[in-house]
Amino acid sequence: MTTRVYLLDMGTLMLDMSFVTWNHGQGIEYRFPVFAVYVDTGDKKVLLDTGFEKDWVERNLPFEKPEQSEEQTIVAQLASIGVRPEEIDIVVNSHLHFDHCSGNRYFPGAQFIMSKTELRHSYVPDPWERLGYDKNLVDIPGAQFTLLPPLHGYEYEVVPGVSLIETPGHSEGHYSFVVRPTGEAPMIFPVDVAYNAHNLGSKVLMGLHSDPRELLESMVKIENLAQKIGGRIFFSHDPESYKGYKKAPEFYGE
Ligand SMILES: [Zn+2]
Asked: Which domains, and CATH codes, for the chain?
């Protein structure tokens, strides 16, 4: 069996640069990509995050000026590679900010894996993080949930070839993903530990975080892991790096 990894392009959002580089860049607009990751291991079909929905953002956070074509919805992206929503076995959420979980509702038959801490924050956010969460996005009646307790440093295996590590700081129950496509270097998705290469390379924290010290530790953890396993890092919201990534229907693996 072979593991293939597809990046599903979900359009773009906008933030003031000071959200991207803490206390710097006020008044500069930063338009950034959002993507989900689909992994087919041959045995299981796994979705890592489910992106945003344009109408939700327009209603709730219009200043993020969402751009998302009909082809950039999660269902259309999967359809472009011949996958129907009901075929998805597992959905894992890195964290529950709206741009990582808004498509969950299309997969009511999947097993959802997420952090218990993160789910609690989604229901009762702290005042400064309230804009990022909406419990209605993750309340899927009848769905099967696996709520993980704190992992304390170990790598949790979702299925062979797909694992997650706990990387708090951006949000309290935040996970990063490690995916091993057949015949290629491991892929590391820090997700929102570092929006872009500059955040990680220069240890410039983003303006939104639950704990700056934890976020810095998570950055070092990601760099260390990449070095240890020879992994390639794929940044979550980096317009420059994104240009060089393969997007579905292209894939990583054999
Ligand atoms: Zn986030």
From this structure: 4-243 (3.60.15.10)
